[in-house]
Amino acid sequence: MATAVATTEFCKNFINGQWVESKSSKIVDRRNPANTDEVVARIPLSTREEMKEAIAAARAAFPGWRNTPAPNRGKILFKATQIMQEQKEELARLLTREEGKSLKDSLGEIQRAINITEFMAGEARRLNGETLTSELPKNFAYTIRQPLGVVGAITPWNFPVAIPVWKIAPALVCGNTVVFKPATITPLTAMKIVEIFAQAGLPSGVLNLVMGSGRDTGDELVQSPDVHGLSFTGSNEVGTQLYACGAQRLKKIQCEMGGKNPVVVLADADLQLAMESTLAGAFASTGQRCTATSRVVIEEKIADQFLAALVERAKKYVVGNGMEPGVEMGPSVDENQMNTVLKYIDIGKKEAKLLCGGERLTGARYDKGWFVSPTIFDNVRADSELAQEEIFGPVLSVIRVKNFDEALNAANSVRFGLSSSIYSTDSNKIFEFVDKIETGMTHVNSPTVGGEAHVPFGGAKDSSVGPREVGHAAIDFYTDLKIVYIDYTGSKRESSIY
Fold it and tell me: Does residue 368 share a domain with residue 231?
C-alpha cells in the first residue's frame, strides 16, 4: 500500500480487512510541506455512512477478538513490532515527506512507536486483576479486566505514527476492536500503520481506518451507540466539545490537548546544558509538539549570559528539507500553521523584544516550502498573549524573574499543564518545584520533551482529561474492571454486609 517513493498516492479506507476506495467526491491534496510543488497524496473526505460501515465491521469482529486469549493477541503485536523495525527507514522517510520533520526526528518517532508496541505486546500477559479479602467467611472476592468493545482513535498530524500506535496497541491488547480516524493531512503514515498490523496477522474488522473530516467521520465516532470508548489527541477546542458530547452518551473519553511548557533556569544551573536542552525542546520537530518548550523562565542575574549563548546557537540552527543530511528543523506542516506562527510572531514584536528569527524564510532553499526561522523573544510578560497561547511553532518566549518563587508563579501562570522542566543543582528547590509545578509531567535537568514506552503520558489543567496514556496506565482506559464475589458456603447467609 503506502510507500515512500515520490509518487502521488490516492488514499483508501481499510474496512473489515479490505482496502476500499471512498465513495466521496470530496478530495483534498496533501503537498510536501518542504516542497509544495509535490503532491504526495490525494485524500477522500469519507462520508458518515462509510464511518458507520467501519464501526459495524469493528462491532462484528469484537466477539472473536475478545475471545482470543490475550497472550495470542500479544503475539500479533510482537510481529507488528518486528515488521515496524524492518520497515523503520521506509516509514521514517514517508513521515518526513508527508509531515515535514527532519529525518532524525522521524526516526526517533518510529523508534518510540516500536518501543510502545513491544511493551504493549508484553502487557498481554499482565492484564491482571487482584484478589481481595472478604468481610464474610467462605467468600472469595476478585477483579478481572474486560475490554470496552469498539473504541475510536482520533489522532493529530504532528506525531502521525507514535500517537496512533500508543492508542491502537493497548486497545488491541485489551481485546477491543478499533476504528482509527487520522488527521486528514497525514494519511500515508496512517495507512502504513494499519498495513503493518494487518501484515502481522490481525483478523479482519479488528482494526479499521477511515479518512475524513472531524465534522462527519469524527462526529460519527462520538455519536454512535456502538462505540464505547474514544481516545482523542488534538486541540483544546475540539477536545472540549468531544468530551462534553461523549459524556452525554456515557462514553469513556480520553483527551490529550494543548501545552505551553516552561523551562525554569535558576542561577545555579549548568547553563550550557540548559541552553542545549532548551534549543532542542523549542525547535526540534519545528516546535510542533504538545510537549515543546515554549517558555524559558530565568533568573535575571544569569539571563544575559544564557541568552547570548542561546541566540548564537539558534542562529546556527539548520533549517531545510528534512530529507537533507544535517537538517535540524523542517517546515511548518502546512500554510495555515505557518500563518498562525507568523501571526503570533507579529504579536510578539509588539509585546516583547525580538532577539532572532521572526520571519518566513526565503531563498532557493525555502521558497517552495512553509519555513519559519527559529525565533526567540526576550522580556516577555508572563501574562502576555505570547506567553499564554499555544503557538505550535518554533517560537520561544523568555520571561525574566528575580527569584525561585517568581519563577514558579510564572511557570504556573497559564491554563495549560502538560510538561515542564527545571535546571538547577539545588535539591531543595528542585523538590519544591516538583511538588508545586502544575503539570502532569516534569523533568529535572532535561528538556520538556521526551518520554518512555512504559511510562504514563498526560497533563493537568486544560491539557488533559481522562486516564493517562502510554505504559501500564493505558490499560486502565481500555478496560472495564469487573468485581466478582464467589460464595462457597453452599447455603443462605443469615446476614448481609450490604
Answer: no
* Rounded Cα gap, residues 298 and 267, in angstroms: 8
pLDDT tens, position by position, 383-421: 999 999 999 999 999 999 999 999 999 999 999 999 999
The grid coordinates of residue 305 equal: 549570559
SS3 334: coil
Cell 510538561 belongs to 419
Q: Is the pTM of this model over 0.85?
A: yes
Active-site residues, by number, are 256, 290
**321: number of CA atoms within 13 Å, CB side?**
16
How far is residue 293's CA from residue 260's CA, in Å, rounded to a whole number? 7
DSSP-derived pairing of the beta strands 252-256 and 464-465:
antiparallel
Residues 184, 316, single domain; the answer is: no
- Alpha helices in 249-334, H assignment, sequence order: 271-283, 300-315
Please, are residues 44 and 212 in contact by the beta-carbon 8 Å criterion? yes
* Residues 218 and 366 sit within 8 Å (Cβ to Cβ): no
**Res 176: pLDDT:** 98
Antiparallel, parallel or unpaired: β 177-181 and 150-154: parallel
124 and 14, same domain (yes or no): yes
Pair (282, 183) in one structural domain? no
Count the domains in the chain.
2
Burial of 13 (0-12, 13-18, 19+ CB in 10 A): buried
pLDDT of residue 493: 79
Length of the chain as a residue count? 498
| pLDDT (0 to 100) of residue 496 | 58
Residue 87 lies in a domain: yes
How far apart are the C-alpha atoms of 474 and 102, rounded to whole Å? 29
Helix (H, G, I), strand (E, B) or coil at 422: strand
Is residue 43 a contact partner of residue 2, using CB atoms and an 8 Å limit? no
Position 204: which residue type?
S
Which candidate, 180, 173, 124, places its Cα nearest to that of 151? 180
Residue 291 covered by a domain: yes
**DSSP states along 360-397:** B--STTTTTS--B--EEEES--TTSHHHHS---SSEEE
Distance from C-alpha of 27 to C-alpha of 450, rounded to nearest angstrom = 35
Longest Cα–Cα distance in the chain:
87
| Among candidate residues 186, 163, 161, the one with its CA nearest the CA of residue 333 | 186
- Output the CA torsion sign for 111, 453, 293, 164: positive
Cell for 69?
A: 486469549
| Host domain of residue 119 | 9-257+463-482
Same domain, 167 and 302: no
Residues 6 or more apart in contact with residue 252 via CB below 8 angstroms = 148, 228, 229, 230, 246, 466, 477
